[in-house]
Amino acid sequence: MSARGNVLAARGSVWRPVVARISWQRLLLLLFVAAFFAYLFGPLIIMTVTAFNSADYPRVTPWDCFTTQWFGRFGRDSLLLAGLANSFFIGLGVVLLSLPIGLAAAIALSEVGERARSLLYTVFIVPILLPGIVIGIATLLFWGRIAGSFGLGHDTLLYNGIFLTILGQVCFISSYSMLIFLARIQRFDPTQTEAALDLGATPGQAFRKVLLPFLKPAIGSAAVLAFLASVENYNTTVFTIVSESTFTTVLASKVRFGIDPTISAIAVIIITTTLVAAIIQEARQRRLAARRREALAGVAAGAGAAAVMAGPTGRLLSHPASVAVLLLAVVGGLVWAGSRYDSSACQDALLQQKLQRQQELLEQQRQRMQQQAPAQPAPVPSGAAPKPASPFGGVFAPNNLGLSAPGGAVPAPAPPGAAPKPASPFGNAFAPDNLGLSAPGGATAPKIEPGAPAAPADPAPATQ
Amino acid sequence: MSRDVTLEHVTIRFGSHTAVDDAHLTIRSGEFFSFLGPSGCGKTTLLRCVSGFLEPTEGRVLIGGEDMRGVGPNRRPTALIFQNLALFPLMSVAENIAFALEVRGVGRQARRKRAVELLELIALPHVGDKKVYELSGGQRQRVAIARALAAEPQILLLDEPLSALDLKLRQHMRSELRAIQRRVGLTFIYITHDQGEALTMSDRVAVMSEGRIEQVDEPLAVYDHPKTSFVASFVGETNVLPATVTGRDGTDVTLQTDGGLIVQGFAVGRRQYRAGERCQVFVRPEQIKVAPPEPGPNRLAARVLAEEFEGNLRHVSLAVGGSVGGSGGAPAVGALAVGGQPLRMSVVNDGSLPPLQPDAALTVTFDPSVASVLPEGPLARA
Amino acid sequence: MSPNGIRVAFSRFFHRWGPGVGIFVTGSVALWIVLLIVLPQLAMFDASFRFNLPPAEIGGPRDLHTLSNYAALLLDGRGGINWLDLGVLGRTILAAVFVTILDLLLCYPIAFVLAHGTSGGRARLMVLGLIVPFWVNEILRAFAFRIIFGSSGVLNAVGLGLGLWAAPVDFIRQDVALYAGLTYTYLLLMIFPIYNAVEALDRNQIEAARDLGSPWWRVHWRIVIPVAKPGIASGATMVFMLTAGALAAPQILGGPSSLWFTQLIYQWFNEGGNWPRGSAYAVVLLLACILVTLLAMRVFKVRIGEIGR
């Protein structure tokens, strides 16, 4: 004991700075982690906030009115809804194809020898590494060529954007599901199969009754992942979708050519859905873990100890179903309240205010022009940078951003005046943005996305 | 129905490695038969060959006289209890037990009934609806047996099924297994590296080393009359004395140990030793006794090195210096004569031997009829 | 794999799982590899060597192979080098490398904390926090960055409000938004491979090293990073390949002066209507990416078999 004390005493001088340094590092690390998660969630939070601002351009400041109008717009957007329906079917098709392929690939990997495995693994992983647009282009060209060699017309399946998109996405999403299945299969105890065979099962029965049930959780997560990856895919889809559209391609064209808080509203819906799903999943996980713990405790120390851990109310509350009901009730309540909320009074007041201000400005200007004939031509007083944005925003408000006009060539971003701060020197920042997206030699006018991918009917491309 | 298993010159090779080398024996119907050997001796490979997961490279496996070549594990009348039990974790206990019936297309009612019967048999009537992970180790053990029995095998194969259990449970399960075997009357083939298990449960034991079957015999014979150096040194505690033959009279052999002791033993298998031949003498610790005053063979002068007390037994380590009446005199401590190892003596703690002080001198002896003389051969690693 | 190897594997599936599963496994894998991976790539490769013909002439006498599409990328048609497109390619690769390094710097500490700094509920919460943002559409995430970095965006509002800078900064033109968005997009692909590798590390090793008086950076340099290397290689390869091949983020966040190479390909397909040329550009992008990856693997001594694990 005393020897130990001596050691500690002798080391004391060494230890103290170490402890101090560790806590200093901890603080730094903690700050880093906090900053990292701010980077992760910041954009989503800001986007969420903009969904409730009545300003026509998604922004946090200046804050106009609290509104829920952008959510309503989403529900009435036929382009987006059509895209959503397509995305759903494509996602379904991708899940139905990529899961069996991924499963087969994972089984193949688990059965072959060491050398064949690393080769096969490399082949299976390549689609993840291929740039998405390369997969898209290759799929489009290959099936076009197949159709050409069979003399199939442009109205057949092989030219169908949804069919091609499913094939293009299955190419790489199968790799994802392969990885998920592989992770699970590697934890499979092969003696389980042997036990089944030994008990008289045929190999097929052993597969169905032992391996497949074991893979069930992986099937679930692979399906969810495949569906999400399919819906959110852009790089491949933008080529294979041809003349159709998906949720993501419609969103992309909206974001590229016009920007308005409806998109924020969509994001809010997705984020909310995600969060609800995540919380329910977490509740389920906890319940499973608790049950397992209880069972183990029951074996070790009798069932009595386990029951103490959670009372009946706690148990009921933490049940995933009740969590789900609770969350859905909250969300439903918010939606109901939101749908009844009317921001028009506030917006009218703001509009009035803006008009008034505009009147004042015009009045001032007129006075100034009367006072001195060679007046400043600029309508904006230099000191009032944030304010003059409002008059224009207010004026253009109702018809801004062509959500209502599918054929209407998305007029919004084209005139620089639609930008919220037209008078400021950087007001035209969006115009070059648009320019950058169009062809180097092509027209400067923004194209409408759904028509943009060269349709097979287009005479130019080689589709043989 | 005949349930005997015959291995006909079975050899199993993996590439250049020979896992089982010319196994040739018959396991009788209704017998509790054990393969005993250290890990890596090929016993599990042999078992997998009987159950059908492996085909022999050479030779045949016959069950009930039928050649099993090409018959898959699911069509053999065998059931295997895996080392890790391989119970299906996602099924309930009853579903596990009824699995063999399920894959044969037996209806739900009949399955349920059979599962209940088997749960009665293993004395766990109320666990049918539990999940496997809710059971204790010993319960899982018994469920695995019930699951195998549900397949109505004629031969039950057990691959070290008790190795995962703690000592107490293991000892309990030994008698349990034996009782179940008697009740169902099947042929049990049991694989283990634990000689206690093999000796207590089996009708016969095959001792294996490096792919070869060294000896097939009843437990008592394996223990008392080992046929090879490996068996003698692997089964039970023993003292090994490397020696050279000096003379022979029938099965009685006279030898000089490498430490210079003159001892007498008996030639196992009536082997005809020539003078000068190298051999090994094996004497169990419990066969070494404090010598009575009257003269006799194998009287050794010894000094106590240490004593360990283990309840019913006392283990004494001795340094032996010479045969009394031969070179004479008590040995100096440290002058060890038994292959560099102290001679071990086990005495029943019945009060007949007074407490021994370290360094105390005494004379010990053993009967020539319990000193097995075997040709020099590889020993089991301690 | 040799034909014999295939036969052995084939018979193994049949033996292990029966003919039904054997046919399913070999059939699915074969269809996937042949019909969805190899043949389409070959079709693209072939198309890149053809003239841009109207449909009527395809298969006709003028449908010959040509190198003109590759020449168009290299030469400007007036005897000079096509610096414009090659510059875009080079800039894309460099920017992708930059984004990869940025991701590595951001993700290594996070992966380490996740593997050895937390446990239980907090670790699970952290994983959830990492995954949830990626359930939101990539397009929407890019959109969020546009809200932040736009000239009237949040960052400018804050910066101006605090008086950090006097006039609004055009973060989009400066490519700040693009890098931030791209870095964000593939964070997970970097974190999880590193996490998987680092998790295997025995914590005692770290503590032992610390006990022996190593400063924290040496503990990482000598003990953690060697263990993390396969994960880093795996993550870096994926991030690099996918960043170089990204299309959405550059389209939404790209500044007017900095085209991404994928945007050139996109233009040849859509606005340009020249599929063969687009194919040639795609082939070049693919080869360039593979070349850079293989080079990096050679330099850092990693095998491709370690990727994705």
UniProtKB/TrEMBL annotation, chain A:
Its main location: membrane. Residues 412-423 have a biased composition (Pro residues). Keywords: Cell membrane, Membrane, Transmembrane, Transmembrane helix, Transport. One of its GO terms (cellular component) is plasma membrane. GO terms for biological process: transmembrane transport. It is a multi-pass membrane protein. The chain crosses the membrane at residues 27-52, 79-107, 119-142, 162-183, 210-229, 263-283, 295-311, 317-337. It is found in: Cell membrane. Residues 84-281 form the ABC transmembrane type-1 domain. InterPro entries: Bact_Polyamine_Transport (IPR051789), MetI-like (IPR000515), MetI-like_sf (IPR035906). Residues 362-464 are annotated as: Disordered. Residues 362-375, 450-464 have a biased composition (Low complexity). Belongs to the binding-protein-dependent transport system permease family. CysTW subfamily. PANTHER family: PUTRESCINE TRANSPORT SYSTEM PERMEASE PROTEIN POTI. This is Spermidine/putrescine transport system permease protein.
Automatic annotation (TrEMBL), chain B:
The keyword Transmembrane helix does not apply. Keywords: ATP-binding, Nucleotide-binding, Transport. This is Spermidine/putrescine transport system ATP-binding protein. SUPFAM superfamilies: MOP-like, P-loop containing nucleoside triphosphate hydrolases. GO terms for molecular function: ATP binding; ATP hydrolysis activity. PANTHER family: SPERMIDINE/PUTRESCINE IMPORT ATP-BINDING PROTEIN POTA, SPERMIDINE_PUTRESCINE IMPORT ATP-BINDING PROTEIN POTA. It comes from Tistlia consotensis USBA 355. Residues 5-235 form the ABC transporter domain. Pfam families: ABC_tran. One of its GO terms (biological process) is quaternary ammonium group transport. The keyword Kinase does not apply.
Automatic annotation (TrEMBL), chain C:
Its main location: membrane. GO terms for biological process: transmembrane transport. The keyword Cell membrane applies. The keyword Transport applies. Pfam families: BPD_transp_1. Keywords: Cell membrane, Membrane, Transmembrane, Transmembrane helix, Transport. Residues 89-296 form the ABC transmembrane type-1 domain. The chain crosses the membrane at residues 21-43, 93-114, 143-164, 176-195, 280-300. It comes from the Bacteria. InterPro entries: MetI-like, MetI-like_sf. Belongs to the binding-protein-dependent transport system permease family. CysTW subfamily. This is Spermidine/putrescine transport system permease protein. It comes from Tistlia consotensis USBA 355.
